[in-house]
Amino acid sequence: MRLTGRGSREWIAMMESARVIVGVDGSHSSLGVVRRAAVEARKRDALLVPVIAWRASDDEALRPFSELRHSARGRLDTVLELAFDGLPTGVRTQPLVLRGEPGRALVATADRGDDLLVVGSGRPGPARQIVHGPVTRHCWTHAVCEVLIVPRATPVLPAGFDLAAEPVPHCHAGFAYEN
Q: In this structure, which of 47, 52, 61, 80 has its CB flanked by the most CB atoms within 10 Å?
């Protein structure tokens, strides 16, 4: 995970201001998590940093990395479009697409004591009702900052909309990403 453009005004602002980092996985529950993170960023007058981390699974190992990164960026764009019709109003936002394990990527991004890391409680299932998912557990046990775990909720989506079945928008809102 390497952020580029370190001399840029945006990079300097991101490093100097209070930050709310939020994990996004492209699921329906990501909508509630990113909305809650935006509320926290607004309350703290902080920079909102939605992060989606991607890695190649065994069956994707032969696909080009640029294709996998673009797919992850599309999932993040879709969540932001559904949650806010683009970017949240009244909140400075710097979306990030990072290559790596999601838990490690989030903890590496939320590397300051004054950061707030916002994650979902994990996917449902028999074992997940007792303990949080692996990404949430990793963040909770390894983060140097405060971690806010947002319970799973069913977001309101347009009738008949299926996030997984919809085509990925092609950089729909023109967001800028670092890799």
A: 52
